[in-house]
């Protein structure tokens, strides 16, 4: 899905497939005031209606993504015993290797899943030692766990630098789109606890039967401010619309997906959407299960940043929809669900959206693709 003509419709495309708008941000830095305002308007529309964008003109060359994908392949091709040695000492520590079928992402919003998610992952993120003088808590900024794989760390660091730069540029555009000074989010992100999760959806073991309950990655919203998502152009990723229907998302060649996280929904009192998404066991055009890779760069904000509704986003006489929280608390509640299996009871709004979703989906290898028609907006 997605439009190849740069159309930024805020509803469904003519064929009923929900459109993730393609937005070219190359004019942001040096564009005229009018060009920047037009871009901010496009981003605002996408943020209100879809919560996902496909960003073009991001300035990250194709070969940088290629080098990063090679590093990711080299890592996941390591023997399982070696990968398992790179697990964090406790699931609360969001670092290192996660084997297939250990997490349930839907527990991050408090919705139980019958089966563990298929994906395996490797996480790296901002370390306390990167911010000398700030005395940041190790629990939120744990040390990374690196494999001894030549070239892996430089390739991953380089991708973090590039994806992080794009995430920060997006927060400048977001501020403008919300009518705020361009640097509004800077004080919330000067020691941001960013994390890169490299995901691999391996071919299932021979003994594993794929039933309806088995997700590549269970339904969730992303926890932080904004996510920069690189993904193989292999079907699997789906987003939820406001009518409870799921829609396939396949990035256009050269585009990076950018999606909004919970903190933007909280700041804007749901004017902007932290869109529910999931990954089905990836399949090819004939419905056969295939391997798929993705990498989500989460720009999550300072652990001690207080997140409460922006003043202009609460209609007079009404209360904000979300209680104030801190980034650290919100993330810890989410991660306790997805990684440690302790069901998060603090996401009632997100849980209600998932419970209202239509659950039916075809088994891999059968006809039908779960595409619905006539969505109004996404959830
Ligand atoms: O694999 C994908 O396309 C999505 C991954 C994702 O949603 C995540 O890592 O949070
Ligand atoms: Fe996600």
TrEMBL record:
Q: Which residues form the Fe2OG dioxygenase domain?
A: 192-301
Compositionally biased residues, Basic and acidic residues: 342-361
Give the metabolic or biological pathway.
Antibiotic biosynthesis
Q: Where is this region: Disordered?
A: 335-379
Tree of life domain: Bacteria
Q: Can the keyword Iron be found in this entry's annotation?
A: yes
Q: Which SUPFAM superfamilies match?
A: Clavaminate synthase-like (SSF51197)
**Which keywords does the record carry?**
Antibiotic biosynthesis, Iron, Metal-binding, Oxidoreductase
Tell me the InterPro entries matching this sequence.
DIOX_N (IPR026992), IPNS-like_FE2OG_OXY (IPR044861), IPNS-like_sf (IPR027443), Iron_ascorbate_oxido_reductase (IPR050231), Oxoglu/Fe-dep_dioxygenase_dom (IPR005123)
Against Gene3D superfamilies, the record matches this protein to: B-lactam Antibiotic, Isopenicillin N Synthase, Chain (2.60.120.330)
Q: Which family does it belong to?
A: Belongs to the iron/ascorbate-dependent oxidoreductase family.
Q: What is this protein called?
A: 2OG-Fe(II) oxygenase
Annotated source species: Streptomyces nigrescens
Instruction: Supply the source organism's classification.
Output: Bacteria, Bacillati, Actinomycetota, Actinomycetes, Kitasatosporales
